[in-house]
Amino acid sequence: MNCDILLTGIGLLSPLGGKESFFRALGEGAEAPCRTAGNASLPPGGLTELLGIKSPKLQLARYLDPLAKNAIVALEEAMGDAGIAPQAVAQDPYSFGILLAATRGPGATRDRAYEQLRARQGKLLSSTLFSNFGYNVAAATAAIAHGIKGPNLTMAGRSNLSLLLLRRARQLLATGRAHTVFTGFSESLANGEAARPVPEWSCIFCLERAERARQRGAGAGALLTEIELESPELAQPRPCAPALRLPRALPQPLSLAVLAEAETLELDLGDPLGIGPEYLPLLQAGRIKATERLREETGYVAFPVSARHGLALLGVAPA
Amino acid sequence: MSHQSESEENAVADKETIVKELKEILVEDLFVSIPVGEIKLEDSLSSDLGVDSVGLVELVTILEEKYRIEISSDEAASENLRTLDRLSSLVLAKIAARRGEPVVSESHG
Amino acid sequence: MGEASGRGVCLPRVLVTGLGSVSALGENTAQLWDGLLAGRSGIKPLANFRREHLRNVLAGEIRLSAAQREYAERHRLDSRIALFARLAIDEALTDAGWTLVYLQKKKVGLVLGTSLGMSLVEKSIDQLDECAGEQVETYDDFAGLVEELAEAYRVSGEALVVTTACAAGTNAIGIAKDMIRHEGYEVVLCGGVDTLDRMKYLGHSALNTLTPTLIRPFTPERDGTLFGEGAGILVLERESLAQELPTYAACAGAGYSCDAHHITGPDPSGAGAVKVMGQALGDAGIRPQDVGHINLHGSGTPLNDAMEYAAIRELFGSAAERIPVSSIKPAIGHVMGAAGALEAVATVLSLRDQRVPPTLNVAAPDPELPLNLVCGEARMAAIEHALSNSFGFGGCNGSVVFSRVNAEPWTDL
Questions:
Q1: Closest by Cα among C402, C354, C343 to C378
Q2: Of all helices (H) and strands (E), which one includes residue C120?
Q3: Is C334 a catalytic residue?
Q4: Could you tell me if A265 and A257 are in contact, meaning their C-beta atoms sit under 8 angstroms apart?
Q5: Residue A122 DSSP symbol
Q6: CB of B4 less than 8 A from some CB of A
Q7: Contacts of residue C265 in chain B, CB cutoff 8 Å?
Q8: Are A306 and A270 spatial neighbours (Cβ–Cβ below 8 Å)?
C-alpha cells in the first residue's frame, strides 16, 4: 500500500498520570500510587477517579465501564494533541475511525454483574451491566462520546497486538476507508484488586493520511513505516515491526531495540531507556540483522511491547 | 439488592417506603449517579435521572420481581413511568391489587 | 486478472476457495446449505445449560455428535470455541485443497470474529452454566485461542480476533480481503466462531432482546431474536494462486461504519447501515442496482428490522422491492460473532447455486417494510453480486459483497 501515514497526536492515561507525567516518572523510576490498606488518601474508583478527571463526556450514560471512560479521555487528548477540533469530526464523522486492542475487556463490569447476580440468587443479570460486557465497549462508547462514525474495530491477539494494530490502522487509511484513525488500547490488567496501583491503561494514537494532515495544516508528525529484517534464511527482507520515523534526529542517540517477530520483551519500568544493550548479543549472533536502511538512517522509533506491563515503550535507533 | 422473605407479604406498603426503595433501586441497580438523598419525587426518570429505554425495561423487571407484580408493556410505555412520583403510585396500586386491598392514594408524613 | 485501481496499479482479486461450517443445522457446510434450502430449523430447546429464569429456552444450540467429541479428544481440545473453530477450519482447508505442508510456505493470515466467546464461563467442551461464583479467569482467553489456532495451522502472518460483537464475522472477512488485496497476503483463513452459554442467555433475557416465541424477521409480530452457536470459515486466496480447483466466488467489497448512537440499540435512521452498505458496494465497484441478493442481518428485533428496511430503501430506492432478500437467523439463530461468517457462507452458496434460501416463520411480511422477502420455499434468482449485512451491539456495522467469479465489474465508460 503506497500511502504516507503520520502520527499526529497521542493521548495517554496511566496510573502514573498522563503523557508528560508518565514519561517523567519512567525516567525517574517512580512507582504508581498503590491503594493499600494504609493509604486512605486515594479516591475510590478507577483511573479517571484516581486522576481526578471530570470531563463532561464521562456523563454520557448512567453506567460506563472504566475502560470506556479511559478511552473517551485518551481519545479526547489525542484529538486535541493533533489539533483536530470536535467540529471537524461533526462535519465529516464517517471519515474518522477508531481501532482499539482489547484483550481482557471490561472485567470490572463483569465482576460487578456476577456479584449482583449472586446476591439475586442467580435470577436476574443486570441488563445495564450486560450491555457493557462486550470487548468493543470501549471503542463503541468512545465513538458515541465523540460522534465518530467511521470504521469501529476492536481486536484481540497475541502480546504484540498493539504493534499489529498499527498495520490494521494503516490498512484502513491506505484503502481510504477513513482519513483519520484513532488507534490504541484501553485495557485493565486485573480486576479490582485493592492492594495495587489502579491497573488500568489507555493509550491512543491519532494516525492520519499524510495528505490530509498537510491539507489541514497539522504540524509535522512521525511517519509510520516498517522495520524489515534480513536473514540468510529469507529470500527477501521480511517486515517485522511497524516503526515511526521522527521528523528530526534526536540530539543524543540512544541504543536500538528491535522486535523480532513474535518475541516479547520483559522490560524493567525503572530503566526503560537502557533496553538496547540486551539486544546487542542477538544482533551479534546474527539472529537479528538490521537492514542497510536501518543502519544508515536516524530517528527510528521501534515499539516493543511488554507482555508483563501491557504497554508500548520507545527506543530510538542510533545515527 | 436482596430478596425479601415471605414476611414481605404482610409488610406495610405505603408511599414513603416504596419511594425510598425505588430510590435505592435507581442508585444501586440502575447506577443513577445522583445520591439517594437528592432524588426528588418530581424528577423525570429519563431527563433528570438518565434512565433510558433500556434502563426502563430493567427497572420494570426489577420491580416485577421484587414486588411480585406485573406491569404490561403498555403501562410501562405510558405516563406511569414518567416521574418517580407516578411510578411509586403505580407500584403501590399494583401491590394493593395483588393483595386485594383498596388503593392508598396519598402518602402520610 | 486483477482490476485496475485509480493509480493504474493492478490489484489482485480475492477469491473464496473453501468453506467450513458448524451450525445448529449440521456438522458441515453441505448439511447447513441443504437444511437452509429445505427450510429446516435448527432451533431447539436448550440442553447444554439450565433453563430457569430465561425469557426463552429455545436456541440454535449444537448438540455435540460422537464424531465431534472424538475430534475434541483426539486433538486434546478443552474449549468449545476452539472445537468449533478447528472443525470449520479443517473443513474449509480440505475444501480449498490446502494441506499444511503447502500452506506453511505461503504468506498466510488468520482473522476470526467473535463476540464474547467463552469469556463468561469456565473453559470446557460442554459445561456451559454460569460461573460458580468466583472470578472467571477466562476474560483474556482470546490471545490463547489465537495462539493455539495460529500454531495448529502454521499461520506465519498475522493472527487476530475481531471482537465487534454481532458484526465481528463480517468485519473479519473484510479485513482478510484487504490483507490479500493490499498487503501481499496469499491466503487468509477468516470467518467467525461463537458459543452459547447461560450467562449470555441470562443477559439477553434481561435486555429483552430474546423473543418469547420464534424469530420472525420483517413481520408485524416480530419481537426479538434467539441466539445460536457455531463457526463459519472462508478460505480467501489471491487470484493468481487459485488455479485448478473450482472457486466459489470473488470477495469483492467490504464496508465498515459505526452508528455512534447507543451501546445496544441501532440508530433508527439507518444512516450507519446506509453508509456501510454503500461503502461495500463502492469497494466492489458496483451500483446498488447490480445487487441480485441481500442476506439480511434480519435479527427479528423490532428495532433492527425497521432500521434495516429504512437503510435498504434509502440506498437501493425502487430496487429495494425487487431484490430477493432473506434472513437465515430463524433457521440457525443469531450466531453472534459467527453470524456474519455463517451468513457469508450462505451468501457465497447463493451465488454458486443461484438460489436464495427462505426466511422461516414468516406467515406474511410486514407491509410497512416492503422488501422482496423470500419465504416459504427457496427461490431461484439471477445473482451476479450479493451483499451480506451485520449490525452489532455498540453500533458496529459490517457489510461484505461477493460476486460471481466471472461477473464483469461495472465500469464507468
A1: C354
A2: none
A3: yes
A4: yes
A5: T
A6: no
A7: 53-54
A8: no
Delineate the domains of chain C, giving CATH numbers in brackets.
14-242 (3.40.47.10), 252-403 (3.40.47.10)
A76, amino acid identity? E
pLDDT at A263: 34
Sign of CA dihedral C326, C328, C333, C335: negative
- Residues of A within 8 A of C140 (CB-CB) are 103-105, 156
Q: Which residue of C has its CA nearest to B55?
A: C207
DSSP C144: H
Q: Are the beta carbons of C203 and A133 separated by less than 8 Å?
A: yes
Chain B positions in Cβ-Cβ contact with residue A120 (cut-off 8 Å):
1, 3
- CA distance to partner chain B, nearest, from residue A128 (Å): 7
Q: Note the pLDDT tens digit of each residue in A7-22.
A: 999 999 988 888 888 8
Top pLDDT among A88 and A256 is at A88
Name residue A30's amino acid: A
Query: For residue range A141-166, what is the model confidence (pLDDT) as tens digits?
Result: 999 999 999 999 999 876 668 778 89
Q: Is the pLDDT of residue A312 over 90?
A: no
Nearest to C263 among A110, A141, A150 (CB): A141
Distance from CA of B54 to the nearest CA of C (A): 7
β-bridge mates for residue C11, sequence order: C3
pLDDT < 50: residue spans in chain C = 1-8, 411-413
The residue annotated as part of the active site, out of C204, C293, C297, C385, is C297
Whether residue B54 and residue C265 make contact (CB cut-off 8 A), yes or no, is yes
| Residue of A82, A67, A104, A240 whose CA lies nearest to A164 | A240
pLDDT confidence bin for A226, thresholds 50/70/90: confident
Looking at chain C from residue 300 to 319, which residues have their Cβ under 8 Å from any Cβ of chain A? none
Q: How would you label A199-221 residue by residue, b for 16+ Cβ within 10 Å and e otherwise?
A: bbbbbbbbbbbbebbeebebeeb
Say which residues have a Cβ less than 8 Å from residue A65's Cβ, sequence separation at least 6: A106, A108, A109, A132, A137, A138, A141
Distance CA C109, CA C93 (A): 13
The predicted structure's pLDDT at residue A305: 33
Q: Whole-angstrom Cα distance, residue B90 to residue B42? A: 14
Among A residues 121-150, those touching chain C with beta carbons less than 8 Å apart: 122-127, 130-137, 139-141, 143-144, 146-150
Cα A172 to Cα C355: distance, rounded to the nearest angstrom: 33
CA A17, CA C205: separation in Å to the nearest integer?
A: 40
Residues 41..70 of B with a Cβ closer than 8 Å to C: which?
52-54, 57-58, 61
Nearest by CB: A62 against B1, B30, B65: B30
Contact C169, C337 (CB under 8 A): yes
- pLDDT, tens digit (0-9, with 9 covering 90-100), for A260-290: 332 333 332 222 223 334 444 444 444 433 3
The residue among C204, C157, C257, C363 whose CA lies nearest residue A143 is C257
Has residue A214 got a pLDDT over 80?
Answer: yes
Q: What are phi and psi of C399, to 5 degrees?
A: -140, 150
Q: Which of C293, C334, C375, C385 is catalytic?
A: C334
State the smallest CA–CA distance between residue B49 and chain A in angstroms: 8
Q: Give pLDDT, residue A236.
A: 66
Inter-chain touch A127–B1, beta carbons under 8 Å? no
- Angle at the Cα of A310 from the Cα atoms of A134 and A83, rounded to 5 degrees: 80
A105, A134 contact by CB (below 8 A): yes
Please indicate whether residue A273 or residue A55 has the higher confidence score (pLDDT). A55
Q: What is the mean pLDDT of each run of 10 residues along chain B (109 residues)?
A: 48 82 92 90 89 87 90 80 89 87 52
